[in-house]
Backbone:
């Protein structure tokens, strides 16, 4: 009798385990989709930031080239770059952007770890 009960209990455990596995598999694509959306915004943000850095680098290179040319021509006054004030503004904006980016990544990491913890807790209960 006990053997039959143990056998039925084992079969129920296997069935429950398979059901949980199927549910987790069905939820996983949705969880990935939810987590990909914020990553797309982070990638777009990084792309825009890289373009801004590229423009700033291009302006700085142009200013340096003009300064070198002026010095080689024997000029005593070095031309001031057109966007010299934008360098400080760009540096400040990059600092704010870095802080925002770090915050977004921390929030994503917390969301993922919370989701994994919930799944583990549910799994361990069974």
Residues:
């Amino acid at each position: 009798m006990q053997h039959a009960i143990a056998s039925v209990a084992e079969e129920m455990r296997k069935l429950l385990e398979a059901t949980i596995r199927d549910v987790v598999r069905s939820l996983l694509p949705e969880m990935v989709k939810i987590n990909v959306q914020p990553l797309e915004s982070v990638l777009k943000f990084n792309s825009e930031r890289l373009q801004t850095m590229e423009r700033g680098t291009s302006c700085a290179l142009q200013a340096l080239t003009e300064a070198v040319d002026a010095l080689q021509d024997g000029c005593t006054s070095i031309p001031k770059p057109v966007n010299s004030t934008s360098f400080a503004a760009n540096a400040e904006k990059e600092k704010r952007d870095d802080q925002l980016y770090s915050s977004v990544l921390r929030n994503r990491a917390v969301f993922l770890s919370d989701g994994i913890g919930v799944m583990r807790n549910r799994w361990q209960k069974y």
User: Anything to note?
Assistant: The chain has one domain: 36-125. Residues 36-125 form one domain. DSSP finds two helices and no strands in the chain. The mean pLDDT is 74.
